[in-house]
Design goal:
This protein is α/β, with parallel strands linked by helices and about 300 residues long. The chain has helices at about 5-20, 40-45, 55-65, 80, 85-95, 125-130, 140-150, 200-210, 230-240, 255-265, 285-295, 300-310, and strands spanning about 25-30, 50, 70-75, 100-105, 135, 160, 185, 190-195, 220, 225, 245-250, 270-275.
């Protein structure tokens, strides 16, 4: 059982890179602890800036440093980073095309028991609507490592959303065929395609394993890259499978499901079932409880598969 959170992996990758590259700077909004950045701050104090609870300043300062040649990583709770600082993200980062990587921690309903004020269930819609902004939701620790290492090599803006707690490994022993901006096939199958992102990928994999015992072969696509979207992988799945299920830790509006439906509607016809959070204030509770309540678990996926195949 994995006990390493994706946010801790981000810290490890940045820490190793920063020891060699003094232009790497991490900024936090009173979130070094919750963002697992304490080790970075302690090891590289001259490359760490604590802004305090001021997300707009966090993003604006990050953009200013980037314009001076720094490689900045702004780490803050996704619920606040994607909403309070949207104007700064749009203008200072994306419009100005600065080398700022926005790391939204505790995304989705990770802060479950704290309620709707701390849920980030619209960040995919917000960030993907901004020109020049890329959007990534890595699924496990191995993919997170590959993603951050690749993003360290470019100078373009990006938003990376990770959860609060450790998630089960999707890629056993770190064996992952990773290509930036290309979806990864987790399991093969042509009966149904399950397209997932973030924490939901491991859930989709569990569902696929259970469906296999029932004679249903599910193709699981890890669509960690929401923008740019791997349209080719979606179209291929739509053409080769009998239907598509999407599952995400996001609102039913403007997220993975909406993006997939847009591609399918424009290219080919197949049934699509969207599993997402409803258009209502989300209930409070621990993540597994909330997932079960809204059918965002393996049982919910299997029920949706049965419905689409009947």
């Amino acid at each position: 059982m994995n006990n390493i959170a994706n946010k801790a992996v981000i810290c490890d990758v940045l820490l190793q890179a920063a020891n060699k590259d003094k232009n790497i700077v991490v900024l936090c909004s009173d979130s070094r602890g919750s963002g697992s950045m304490t080790a970075f701050a302690n090891s590289n104090p001259t490359q760490f800036i604590e802004v305090g609870i001021a997300e707009q300043n966090l993003v604006a300062i990050s953009a200013g440093l980037a314009s001076c040649g720094k490689k900045t990583y702004a780490v803050s709770p996704a619920s606040f980073l994607s909403t309070r600082s949207m104007e700064q993200v749009k203008v200072d980062v994306a419009y100005s095309n600065t080398n700022v990587k926005l790391v939204g921690i505790s995304g989705g309903i990770s802060y479950g028991s704290l309620g709707a004020t701390h849920h980030s269930v619209n960040d995919i819609a917000i960030m993907s609507s901004i020109a020049n902004m890329r959007v990534y939701l890595p699924s496990d620790r191995f993919q997170t490592k590959e993603l951050i290492e690749k993003l360290l090599q470019d100078k373009k803006p990006a938003y990376i959303r990770v959860g609060r707690n450790a998630v089960e490994d999707v890629y056993t022993d770190g064996k992952i065929d990773f290509t930036l901006d290309k979806a990864t096939v987790v399991t093969e199958g042509n009966d149904i395609a399950i397209i997932a992102c973030g924490e939901m990928v491991s859930t989709a994999k569990v569902a696929a394993d259970q469906l296999q015992t029932q004679g249903i072969k599910a193709r699981v696509l890890d669509m960690y890259c929401l923008k740019p979207l791997d349209r080719q992988a979606i179209q291929k799945a739509a053409e080769e499978c009998k239907g598509i299920i999407t599952i995400e830790e996001h609102s039913c509006y403007g997220g993975l499901g909406s993006l997939v439906c847009s591609v399918v509607a424009q290219t080919c016809f197949t049934k699509v079932k969207v599993l997402a959070l409803p258009d209502e204030p989300i209930v409070s509770g621990k993540s597994p409880q909330i997932f079960a309540h809204y059918g965002l678990n393996s049982a919910g996926i299997i029920a949706a598969v049965k419905e689409i195949l009947k």
